[in-house]
Design brief:
The structure holds two protein chains of two kinds.
Chain A: H1 2-31, H2 39-52, H3 62-86, H4 102-113, H5 123-126, H6 129-159, H7 169-194, E1 205-218, E2 236-246, H8 251-260, H9 281-305, H10 309-336, H11 339-346, H12 359-372, H13 387-398, H14 409-428, E3 434-435, E4 438-439, H15 442-468, H16 470-474, H17 481-495, H18 510-540, H19 556-590
Antiparallel strand pairs in A: 1-2, 3-4
Helix pairs in contact in A: 1-9, 1-12, 2-7, 3-4, 3-6, 3-18, 4-18, 6-7, 6-8, 6-14, 6-18, 7-8, 8-9, 9-10, 9-12, 10-12, 10-13, 10-19, 12-13, 13-17, 13-19, 14-15, 14-19, 15-17, 15-18, 17-18, 17-19
Chain B: H1 14-26, H2 30-33, H3 37-57, H4 65-102, E1 108-112, E2 121-125, E3 134-137, E4 147-157, H5 159-162, E5 168-171, E6 178-179, E7 184-194, H6 202-211, H7 219-253, H8 261-271, H9 274-293, E8 296-298, H10 301-309, E9 312-316, H11 317-321, E10 327-333, H12 339-351, H13 356-369, E11 381-383, E12 391-396, E13 399-405, H14 406-415, H15 425-433, E14 436-443, E15 446-454, H16 461-470, E16 474-478, H17 483-493, E17 497-499, H18 504-516, E18 521-525, H19 531-536, E19 539-543, H20 548-553, E20 556-558, H21 565-603, H22 621-645, H23 654-686
Parallel strand pairs in B: 9-16, 9-18, 16-17, 18-19, 19-20
Antiparallel strand pairs in B: 1-2, 1-3, 3-7, 4-5, 4-6, 4-7, 8-20, 10-15, 11-12, 12-13, 13-14, 14-15
Helix pairs in contact in B: 1-4, 3-4, 3-8, 4-6, 4-9, 4-22, 7-8, 8-21, 8-22, 9-21, 9-22, 10-21, 12-13, 15-17, 21-22, 21-23, 22-23
The chains are: A mainly alpha, B alpha+beta.
C-alpha cells in the first residue's frame, strides 16, 4: 500500500512538472498578447467582447488597475448577494429552495468573490441550480481571474522599467477567462462527466437503499453550550432508513472550475468526498492535477515574462520543496494512526473521516494540495485528521498560502516573501538589496510586509476575539485543545482565502458569519491592493544590470534561504497558537488522553 | 602649534567607555528613544514589569516580586545596552570633533582690501569673514577659513584636519590651490580668497559628520527598520493573542493559569528583533568612524552605502593609476628642426607654467640639455592650460609659443594656416605606444618637435584592480591622453576600460550613460574640471588636495588624497550592509530557541504535556523565562565589538558569500541561543 501511495505521489509530481511549464509559457504568451494555439478560435470572441463592452485597451497605472479590480469585484459581490436573496423567485429551482437569509447571502457572496469559497451552507439544501450556475460558477471564474491578473500586474511591474503602467485590468481579465479558465474547465468537465460526474437540471431523486440502515440517533442538545460534549446520557432513538434522496444538478461544470481556479466551493456539502463530485481514484488524481496546474504554471509564466527562466524555476522549486515536506508529514501522521484507537482493533493507517476509495494516500495528497493552494475543496474530513496530520493543512494556510497558493495570489504572496528574503540576503552580501534589477527600498518593504503579514495578523486578532467573546465561545462545539484548533483553522482558512473548514464550529450564528466575512474581505483585498501598489512602484524603477556582486536569486542557496524565511516567519507568528492547539492535542493523544 | 598625529583611540578605551555610559543613560529618555521604535517598546515593557514588581511588593497576587523584578531589570539592561552601543560608536567621533573645534576658535585674520599681498590690511575675527574676502596668511599663522590661494605658495600643516603632520604645498593655480580653515602655514605667505561663510566651512561640516549630529537615517537603514517594525508589530499581536488563548485553555482544562503580563512582556521582548534594533544605529556610526580612521570623510551616510553597490569606478589616471605627475624624459625634434631649437621653444612655453609637467620640462631642459634661460623676457604673457583648448604656452616677442597634445597643436597650427610636418606623427605614435604622452611644441604655425612625458605606474596597482574585478566592479581609466597612450597604460595597469582625451563633458556623459544603464558610478577626482562629473556620480570622492569646486561637488573627501582609497570606502560600505544583514538574520534566528524556552514554561501549568517542548530541559518555568530574557540582553553587549568593527569582508562571489553568512549567522543564530540559554539557566540555578 505504502509503495503504491508513494508511486502515486511521485507520478503526480512528475506529471505536474511536465504540464506546468508548457502551460505557464502559454499563459505568458497570452498575457503578452502574442499569438497562441487558441488565438484563431478565441481571438474573434475576445475582440467582440472588447467592442461590445467598449473596453479601451489602454495601459493603466496601478491606481486605475486597482480601481477597476475593486469595482469589478464589488459588482460581482452585489450580483451574487442579490441572486441568493432572490433565488426563490428565480427560475431553475426544481427543489423550490427558498431565498437565502441575509447573513448567509452576505457570507457566501463575500466568500465566492474573494476566491475563498468558505461555505456556511449546504449546497444541495440552500442553493438553487440558477445560483449554482449563474452565480457561484461565474464567480469561480471571475475571482480566480482576479487573483491571476493581479499576479500578472506584479510580474509586469518587475519586468518593466521606467514606466507607470502595469497593463489593462479588463483585457487581462478577459484573456484569463477566455484563453485559460474556460478551455481548461471545458476539457476537465468533459473528462469528469466521462467518469460519472453528473450534469443535469433534474429534481432530486429518491432511491431505495439496497440494504436498510439502522441509526442510533441521539436527541439534539437544546442548550448548545460548550458542555455539549458530555451528551452520552441523552436518550437515543432507533431509526431505520430505507430510502435516500440523491441531490442532482449541473455538477461537472462547477467541479472543473472549482479545481482549476483553486476555488474549492463544493456543489454538495460533502465537496470532493461526494461520489458525484469525485467518483474514482482517477478523478481524484486529475482533480489534484487541476488544482495545481495554474499556480505551478504561473511560476514558469513569471520566469518567461521577466526574461529569466531561472527565477521562475526557483519559485517552483521553493514551493515544491514545501509541498513535498507537507505531503510527507501529512501522509506519515495519518499512516502512523492514532494510538487511542489502536486498542480498539483499528490499528494501522487512520481512516476516520476518509473515503475508502481514496485511502490514506489519496486523502493525504488532496488535503495537502487543497490547503497548499487556496483551493479548499476537500475529499476527506480535515477535522478528523490526526492532530499533527491536521496541523499540516493548517500550517500550509498559515504560511500565507504560498506553497503554490491560490491562482495568482500564491505567486504574488510568494513574490512578497522573495522581496523580504532578497532584502536580508542582499544585505548579507554587502549590497543594497535588489531583485531582478529593481532596488528594494522603503516603499517595497512596507508593501511586502503588508502582503505577507496581513493574513497572519487577521488570524491572530480574530482567533483571540473568538476566544474572548461570549458569542465566539458559544459556537464552539468541541471545547479544549481541539476546539482551539478549530477556531484557528477557521480563521486561517478565511483570512488566507482557502475555504476549507475543520467544522466543529456552529457557523450559523452572527459572530462566525461576520468575523469570517471580515477576515475574507481583509485577507483578500488588503494584500491585493498592496500588490498592485508594489507593481506600480517597481514598474517606475530603473533596471540595474546584474554583476558579479549581485545576489544570484536563481541559485540553490537562495532557494533554501527563501524556504527558510517563509517557514521562520510562519513559525514565529503561530508557534504559541499551534502549541496550544494541534501540538498539545498530539501530546495528549500520544500520552493516551 | 604643529600638531602631531593622534594615535587612534581604541574603541574600548576606558575614557570612551565612561563617556558612553553617560551618553547611554541620556539616550534612555523616551523622547529620544522613540526614534528607535523597537527599543522604545522594550523600554515600555521594562516599565510595565517594573510596575508589576512594585505591585507584587505591595502584596498583589500573581508573579512573585523577585521574578517581575529580575525580568524588569534585564529589560532595562537590554535598552541600556542598545543605547550604550550607540553612544560608544559616537564616542570616538565626538572626541575628534572636540579637538577640531579647538583649532577653530579665536583665530584672527588679516583681511586685505584687494587680492594684492601689499594691499592695506585690517585684523578681523575669523567668524566675520565672508565669501570673497581676501586674507593674507604668513608663516606660523592659522588660515582663518576655507579658501583658494590666489597668489603665492606656502607649506601648510594640515594636521588639524588630516592628522598628518608633514606639511603640504599649497600654491596658486593648478589643482593644489585649496586651503582649509584651521590649518597652519609653516612657511611662506599666501593670499587666500575665502570661499565659505562661517558655519559652512569644511571643518564645520566635518565636525557635524563625525559628531553624528547631522546623521540622518539612510534609505537602507529605513527599509530595514520597516522590516523590524513590521515583525515587532506581529510579535505584539502574537503575544496579545497568547493571552486569550491561554485564558481559554486554562478555563477548559480547569488547571493552571493564564500567561501573566510579565511573562507576556518577556516573551515579546525576546521575540522582537532587539539585537539588530539595538545595534542598528551603532553600525552606521561606527562605519563612518572606521572611514574616518582611514582619513576619509563621508559627507553623507548614503554615499557610503552607495559605495558598497558601485559597479563602475571611474579613475583619473593621473595620481591614481600612475605615480603623481608625468615627467618629461625626452625631446624629439621634427620637421628638420634641431634639438636646440625645440628645447628652447619648450622652455619658453613652459617657464610660466606652474604645473608639475611644465616644471619637469624646465628641469629636463636645464639638466640634460643645459638650457640656460632663467626667466621669461619682460612683457611675456603666460597662457594657462584650459580644458577646452588643451594648450598652454607663452606669448613673447610677438610670437605664440604653445605646447599641448599633438592633435591640439596640429589644430592650433592649422588654424594659423600652417601645416604639420610629415615626420610629426611617427615619433608621436612611438611615444604614445610606449605609454608615454607626446607633447607637441610649436612656435606660431611651426611645429618644432615632441616632448615625451612618461607615466610611471603605481606599485601594486594591478592587484588592486584584480580585487575590484572580483568584487564585480568595472574600472574605467579616465585620461586626457590620446587613445594610444591611454591603451598602453590601461593594458599595463589592467583596467577594464579607458576613456581617452576626456573633456569634462565626456566624463559627464560617460557617467550619465552608465547610470542610465542602471549602474552605480563612483568617481575620484581632484581638479576643477572634474567637478561636474563628481556632482553627477553616485559616489564622488574628492582629494583633499583638490580644488574647492571639486571638494564641494563630492560626497566623500579623502584627506590623504590617495585615490585608491575607494577600495577601502567600498569595503566599508559593504561591511556596514553586511553587518546589518548578518545581525538581522542572527536576531531573528535566535527567536526559535527563545520560543522553545518560553512557550513550554509559560503554558506548562495548563498542559503539563507541553514539557515535551522543553527540549533544553531548563530547570523551572521561571528560570527558563529569565534565562531567555538574560540571553536576549547579554547578546547585545557581546555583539557590540562586531557591530563596531563590522563583519569581515573578503572579496568573493556573491553566492559563496551568501552560503557563508547563512551558515554563520543563520544556522549559528539558531544554535547559539540554545547553548546560551541552557548555560544561563544552569548558572542561575547555582545562585538559587
Amino acid at each position: 500500500m505504502i509503495y503504491l501511495d508513494i508511486f502515486e505521489f511521485l507520478a503526480y509530481l512528475a506529471i505536474l512538472t511536465l504540464l506546468a511549464r508548457p502551460f505557464g509559457l502559454f499563459m505568458a504568451s497570452t498575457y503578452q498578447g502574442e499569438r497562441t494555439l487558441l488565438t484563431p478560435v478565441v481571438g474573434p470572441v475576445e475582440k467582440l467582447i472588447y467592442r461590445f463592452c467598449r473596453i479601451a485597451q489602454e495601459e493603466m497605472n496601478w491606481r486605475q488597475y486597482a480601481g477597476a479590480m475593486l469595482a469589478c469585484n464589488a459588482v460581482m459581490f452585489l450580483s451574487l448577494f442579490a441572486m441568493l436573496r432572490l433565488q426563490g423567485l428565480l427560475p431553475l429551482n426544481p427543489q423550490d429552495i427558498p431565498n437565502a437569509s441575509w447573513p448567509m447571502a452576505l457570507n457566501t457572496a463575500i466568500s465566492f468573490t474573494t476566491n475563498t469559497n468558505w461555505q456556511t451552507y449546504s449546497g444541495e439544501a440552500a442553493v438553487s441550480y440558477l445560483t449554482q450556475m449563474a452565480g457561484l460558477t461565474v464567480h469561480n471564474f471571475v475571482s480566480a481571474a482576479t487573483g491571476m491578473v493581479i499576479a500578472i500586474a506584479l510580474i509586469r511591474g518587475l519586468a518593466r522599467r521606467n514606466t507607470k503602467t502595469i497593463g489593462n485590468f479588463w483585457v487581462d481579465l478577459t484573456r484569463t477567462i477566455l484563453y485559460m479558465l474556460l478551455p481548461l474547465s471545458l476539457l476537465a468537465a468533459i473528462f469528469l462527466v466521462s467518469q460519472g460526474i453528473i450534469q443535469n437540471f433534474s429534481p432530486y431523486q429518491t432511491v431505495t437503499l439496497v440494504q436498510p440502515m439502522h441509526l442510533e440517533q441521539p436527541q439534539a442538545d437544546k442548550e448548545g453550550q460548550h458542555g455539549a460534549a458530555a451528551e452520552n446520557k441523552m436518550p437515543a432513538t432507533s431509526v431505520i432508513i430505507n430510502e435516500q434522496v440523491l441531490p442532482m444538478g449541473p455538477v461537472a461544470s462547477q467541479e472543473a472550475i472549482k479545481e482549476v481556479g483553486t476555488n474549492g466551493g463544493g456543489f454538495f456539502n460533502a465537496n470532493s468526498a461526494h461520489p458525484f463530485e469525485n467518483p474514482t481514484p482517477l478523478t481524484n488524481f486529475i482533480e489534484c492535477l487541476l488544482i495545481l496546474l495554474i499556480p505551478a504554471g504561473l511560476t514558469f509564466a513569471f520566469g518567461h515574462m521577466t526574461g529569466n527562466q531561472g527565477q521562475g524555476k526557483t519559485l517552483f522549486l521553493a514551493m515544491l520543496m514545501l509541498l513535498v515536506i507537507a505531503v510527507g508529514c501529512l501522509y506519515w501522521a495519518e499512516s502512523a494512526g492514532n494510538p487511542l484507537v489502536d486498542g480498539l482493533g483499528a490499528a494501522g493507517p487512520y481512516l476516520e473521516g476518509k473515503e475508502v476509495r481514496f485511502g490514506v494516500g489519496g486523502s493525504s495528497l488532496f488535503a495537502a494540495l487543497t490547503t497548499a493552494t487556496s483551493c479548499g475543496a476537500v475529499n476527506a474530513m480535515h477535522d478528523s485528521l490526526t492532530p499533527l496530520g491536521g496541523m499540516v493543512p493548517m500550517v500550509l494556510m498559515l504560511l500565507g498560502e504560498v506553497v503554490f497558493g491560490g491562482v495568482g495570489s500564491g505567486l504574488y504572496t510568494m513574490l512578497a516573501f522573495v522581496v523580504i528574503a532578497v532584502f536580508v540576503a542582499g544585505l548579507m552580501i554587502g549590497r543594497t538589496p535588489e531583485y531582478l534589477g529593481k532596488k528594494i527600498e522603503v516603499r517595497e518593504m512596507w508593501l511586502s510586509m503588508v502582503i505577507v503579514l496581513t493574513s497572519g495578523a487577521i488570524v491572530l486578532i480574530f482567533s483571540a476575539a473568538a476566544l474572548l467573546a461570549p458569542a465566539g465561545l458559544a459556537c464552539m462545539a468541541n471545547p479544549g485543545a481541539h476546539g482551539l484548533s478549530e477556531v484557528l483553522y477557521a480563521f486561517a482558512s478565511t483570512a488566507n482565502n482557502n475555504g476549507s473548514a475543520f467544522a466543529g464550529l456552529n457557523a450559523d450564528t452572527l459572530f462566525p458569519i461576520l468575523s469570517t466575512s471580515t477576515a475574507m474581505l481583509l485577507g483578500r483585498y488588503v494584500p491585493a491592493v498592496a500588490v498592485l501598489a508594489m507593481a506600480g512602484a517597481l514598474a517606475e524603477k530603473k533596471f540595474a544590470p546584474p554583476s558579479l556582486g549581485t545576489l544570484p536569486t536563481d541559485s540553490i542557496p537562495f532557494t533554501l534561504w527563501l524556504v527558510l524565511v517563509i517557514v521562520i516567519v510562519g513559525a514565529l507568528t503561530f508557534f504559541p497558537a499551534l502549541a496550544l492547539g494541534p501540538i498539545v492535542e498530539h501530546l495528549l493523544m500520544t500520552g493516551g488522553r | 602649534m604643529a600638531k602631531h598625529v593622534q594615535p587612534p583611540l581604541s574603541i574600548f578605551a576606558p575614557a570612551l567607555l565612561r563617556a558612553a555610559v553617560a551618553g547611554a543613560l541620556k539616550k534612555l529618555d523616551p523622547r529620544i528613544l522613540w526614534r528607535s521604535p523597537v527599543m522604545f517598546l522594550v523600554e515600555i515593557g521594562g516599565a510595565i514589569t517594573l510596575i508589576n514588581f512594585l505591585l507584587a511588593l505591595s502584596g498583589r497576587q500573581g508573579d512573585p516580586a523577585w521574578f517581575s523584578g529580575l525580568v524588569s531589570l534585564w529589560l532595562w539592561l537590554t535598552v541600556f545596552f542598545g543605547t550604550f552601543a550607540e553612544a560608544l560608536a559616537e564616542g570616538r567621533g565626538k572626541a575628534r570633533a572636540a579637538s577640531l573645534r579647538k583649532s577653530r576658535t579665536e583665530v584672527q585674520a588679516r583681511r586685505l582690501a584687494s587680492p594684492d599681498p601689499a594691499a592695506p590690511s585690517e585684523a578681523v575675527a575669523a567668524n566675520l569673514l565672508r565669501r570673497d574676502d581676501h586674507i593674507l596668511v604668513s608663516t606660523g599663522e592659522l588660515i582663518a577659513g576655507d579658501g583658494e590661494v590666489v597668489s603665492g605658495a606656502a607649506l601648510v600643516n594640515e594636521a588639524a584636519v588630516t592628522g598628518e603632520s608633514a606639511p603640504v604645498v599649497r600654491e596658486s593655480g593648478g589643482d593644489r590651490s585649496a586651503v582649509t580653515g584651521g590649518t597652519t602655514v609653516t612657511s611662506g605667505a599666501i593670499v587666500v580668497r575665502i570661499t565659505a561663510n562661517p558655519g559652512e566651512t569644511f571643518l564645520d561640516r566635518m565636525i557635524g559628520m563625525v559628531e553624528g549630529a547631522k546623521r540622518r537615517k539612510t534609505p537602507n537603514e529605513m527599509a530595514l527598520e520597516v522590516l523590524l517594525i513590521a515583525l515587532t508589530a506581529v510579535f505584539l499581536l502574537v503575544v496579545a493573542n497568547l493571552r486569550p488563548l491561554s485564558v481559554y485553555s486554562a478555563g477548559v482544562t480547569g488547571q493552571g493559569e493564564a500567561v501573566s503580563l510579565t511573562v507576556l512582556v518577556a516573551l515579546f521582548v525576546c521575540l522582537a528583533p532587539t539585537t539588530i534594533a539595538a545595534l542598528l544605529p551603532a553600525i552606521g556610526i561606527a562605519g563612518m568612524d572606521r572611514l574616518f580612521q582611514k582619513n576619509v570623510i563621508a559627507l553623507s551616510g548614503r554615499a557610503i552605502e552607495a559605495a558598497g553597490d558601485v559597479n563602475v569606478l571611474l579613475l583619473d589616471k593621473t595620481g591614481t593609476i600612475t605615480l603623481g605627475n608625468r615627467e618629461a624624459v625626452d625631446f624629439v625634434p621634427v620637421g628638420g628642426h634641431t634639438e636646440e631649437e625645440l628645447v628652447e621653444a619648450a622652455m619658453i612655453a613652459s617657464l610660466g607654467d606652474e604645473t608639475p609637467e611644465g616644471r619637469s620640462i624646465v628641469i629636463l631642459a636645464k639638466k640634460e640639455y643645459k638650457q640656460r634661460m632663467q626667466r621669461l623676457p619682460a612683457g611675456a604673457k603666460n597662457v594657462a592650460f584650459s580644458a577646452e583648448t588643451r594648450l598652454s604656452g607663452t606669448d613673447t616677442g610677438g610670437k605664440r609659443y604653445r605646447k599641448g597634445a599633438t592633435d591640439s597643436i596640429v589644430g592650433f597650427v592649422q588654424k594659423l594656416g600652417g601645416r604639420p610636418p610629415r615626420d610629426l606623427q611617427g615619433p608621436a605614435h612611438a611615444i604614445a605606444k610606449g605609454g608615454g604622452t607626446p607633447l607637441a611644441v610649436c612656435c606660431e604655425a611651426d611645429i618644432l618637435g615632441v616632448i615625451n612625458l612618461k607615466d610611471i605606474l603605481k606599485g601594486g596597482i594591478q592587484e588592486r584592480f584584480q580585487q575590484l574585478r572580483s568584487m564585480g566592479i568595472r574600472t574605467v581609466m579616465i585620461t586626457g591622453d590620446n587613445p594610444h597612450t591611454a591603451a598602453a597604460i590601461a593594458a599595463e595597469a589592467q583596467v577594464d576600460d579607458f576613456l581617452a582625451q576626456a573633456t569634462p563633458e565626456d566624463k559627464l556623459r560617460l557617467i550619465r550613460e552608465n547610470q542610465q544603464a542602471g549602474y552605480m558610478v563612483a568617481m575620484t577626482g581632484d581638479g576643477t574640471n572634474d567637478a561636474p562629473a563628481l556632482a553627477q556620480a553616485d559616489v564622488a570622492v574628492a582629494m583633499n588636495t583638490g580644488t574647492q569646486p571639486a571638494r564641494e561637488a563630492a560626497n566623500i573627501i579623502d584627506l590623504d588624497s590617495n585615490p585608491t582609497k575607494l577600495l577601502d570606502i567600498v569595503e566599508i560600505g559593504k561591511q556596514i550592509l553586511m553587518t546589518r544583514g548578518n545581525l538581522t538574520t542572527f536576531s531573528i534566528a535566535n527567536d526559535v530557541a527563545k520560543y522553545f524556552a518560553i512557550i513550554p514554561a509559560a503554558l506548562i501549568s495548563i498542559y503539563p504535556e507541553l514539557d515535551a517542548l522543553n527540549i533544553m530541559r531548563l530547570a523551572s518555568p521561571r528560570s527558563a523565562i529569565l534565562a531567555a530574557v538574560i540571553f536576549n540582553a547579554l547578546i547585545i553587549p557581546l555583539l557590540i565589538p562586531l557591530a563596531l568593527r563590522g563583519t569581515k569582508y573578503r572579496p568573493m562571489p556573491a553566492e559563496k558569500m551568501l552560503i557563508h553568512s547563512l551558515l554563520v549567522y543563520g544556522v549559528g543564530g539558531m544554535v547559539v541561543p540554545f547553548a546560551g540559554i541552557k548555560v544561563i539557566d544552569l548558572l542561575t540555578g547555582l545562585f538559587g
